[in-house]
Amino acid sequence: MSILHRLSALPIRHKILLSIIGTSLIVVLLSTAVYLTVGWVGLKNKAVDEIETTANMFAQNVSAALSFGDVSAAGDLLLSLKALTELERACVYDKNAGGVLFASYTPAAKGLQCPKELAAVPEDLAGSLLHREKVFVGQDQLGTVVLQRSTDDLQGAMGLSVLVAVGMVLVSSLIAFLLTSFFRRLIEQPITQLVATTQRVSEESDFGLRAEKFANDEIGTLFDSFNGMLAQIQSRDLALSLAHDELKQQVTEVEEANAALNTTLKQLRETQEQLVNQEKMASLGGLVAGVAHEINTPIGVGVTAASTLHAATEDMSASYEAGRLTDSGLRKYVQTAIQSAGILLNNLNRAANLIHSFKQVAVDQTSSELRQFDLHNYLEEILLSLLPKLKKTNISVELNVPDNLLMQSFPGAFSQIITNLLMNSLVHAYPDTKEGTIRIDVDQEGEQIALHYRDDGVGMDRAALDKVFDPFFTTRRGDGGSGLGMHIVYNLVTQQLRGRIRMDSKPGEGVHVTLQIPQKLSMEEVA
Ligand SMILES: Nc1ncnc2c1ncn2[C@@H]1O[C@H](COP(=O)(O)OP(=O)(O)O)[C@@H](O)[C@H]1O
Ligand SMILES: [Mg+2]
């Protein structure tokens, strides 16, 4: 981890402490360094000045002794330098004698000697100040004076300064530390408080909490902003929870409405089923009425014939008992009897035939049995059962079906489909008891048969055609229409007969219903 990283990970109070103490330490250290340097340079300059002045004066004084070669005079002069406590050595060199030592003074305590020649005197010496001063008389140089002084006294003086400086550093650090602790509290306390509040807010999700402001500085502004933010969140939270409650309420309402709708839908389905069954029963009822009406005629004629026969026989019997039976009377009776019996036989046969075909259609309409049947014959039987309805109109039916077309299917469904289509034509297609023709054409197409049912009535518009298979769609509501007929036809074709149905029509052009139905259904298919 880099130093910067480590620093930024420190708590704020350490950062404050570090920055203030660091700054003050650097400032104190820098100023101390300047103070010490300036002090040292001053001391040294003073010492240099001193030794230069001394050397200069001594050179003037010693010039006479040098020019006369008076060593002892020079020695006396040298002794006058004794007062300089820091002097380590004072050496006088004679230039004319080739720079050899002329006279010297060396305090025993310092333990130093003068080199024998000027050339051997070092240029510079650590720990000491060395000064050379040339000795002149007029323009002539006679020799050189060398003075050497130790700098121990200067270092001693500097030591004290360093001590003072260290003291200053320590004292100022202490002050900085104390000041920092004081100011730190001013900054750190509010921030710590703010942090604690934010933690509580996030832990308890309580946006009603507020941070307590300390002062009107930037941190104070931060507190205000933070509190403002909390207030905003609180009001939004409230609005949100209100909206949530409302939504929940709405969902409950929708769910209740949904449940109610489902119940209604179920009831509607049940009602629809009931109505479909009623419609089926109604068509069966129509069949029964037709049967009754149709059979009424032959039976009625039969009854008349039988009662005629009965009356004629009674007459004949009475004449015979009375012995009045004549030849012509017997002949007349026999004629009447043959005629009546013929009528009776004819009409009973007709009734029996009618009952036979009605029975089959009626049984098929109520049961849904898969069986083999001849389509041509079966369609004829169905039409026969509908004859009573047709008779009252000017509408004829043409049947065009190949002979010996054997089907294996549900004849009951065929019967219901044809009945419904035909009844629709009678009820809807010819409103003014007009003349009309209904045609039923059947073609075999591979394993399918195509049944085309056409009438030439009023036809239907697009809107009606689109809805014709919908349950309860009728244009004659309140006039006996249930709107279930074509729905039942659709279901019978597509579900029971596994076929397809389409209806084409235009206003004024009659209708054309096309059924496409498998000729043979297997038991497995319908299971
Ligand atoms: N052959 C047709 N000619 C004209 N309109 C018809 C014919 N067949 C059916 N329709 C129309 O289709 C509607 C729906 O027929 P259907 O489902 O049998 O109901 P419903 O006969 O009870 O009205 C009828 O109301 C009628 O408007
Ligand atoms: Mg109908």
Automatic annotation (TrEMBL):
CDD domains, sorted: HAMP (cd06225), HisKA (cd00082)
User: What positions does the domain HAMP occupy?
Assistant: 185-238
Q: Where in the cell is it found?
A: Membrane
Q: Which UniProt keywords apply?
A: Coiled coil, Kinase, Membrane, Phosphoprotein, Transferase, Transmembrane, Transmembrane helix
InterPro entries per the record? CHASE8, HAMP_dom, HATPase_C_sf, HATPase_dom, His_kinase_dom, HisK_dim/P_dom, HisK_dim/P_sf, Sig_transdc_His_kin-like_C
Q: Name the Gene3D superfamilies for this protein.
A: 1.10.287.130, 6.10.340.10, Histidine kinase-like ATPase, C-terminal domain (3.30.565.10)
Q: What are the TM regions of this chain, as residue ranges?
A: 16-38, 157-179
Keyword Transferase, does the record have it? yes
Query: Ranges for the Histidine kinase domain?
Result: 290-521
Q: Source organism's superkingdom?
A: Bacteria
Which reaction does this chain catalyze?
Answer: ATP + protein L-histidine = ADP + protein N-phospho-L-histidine
A Pfam family per the record = HAMP
An example of a Gene Ontology cellular component annotation for this protein is: membrane
Q: Which SUPFAM superfamilies match?
A: ATPase domain of HSP90 chaperone/DNA topoisomerase II/histidine kinase, HAMP domain-like, Homodimeric domain of signal transducing histidine kinase
- What are the EC numbers? 2.7.13.3
Q: Which GO terms of the molecular function aspect are on file? A: phosphorelay sensor kinase activity
PROSITE patterns membership: HAMP, HIS_KIN
| Name of the protein described by the UniProt record | histidine kinase
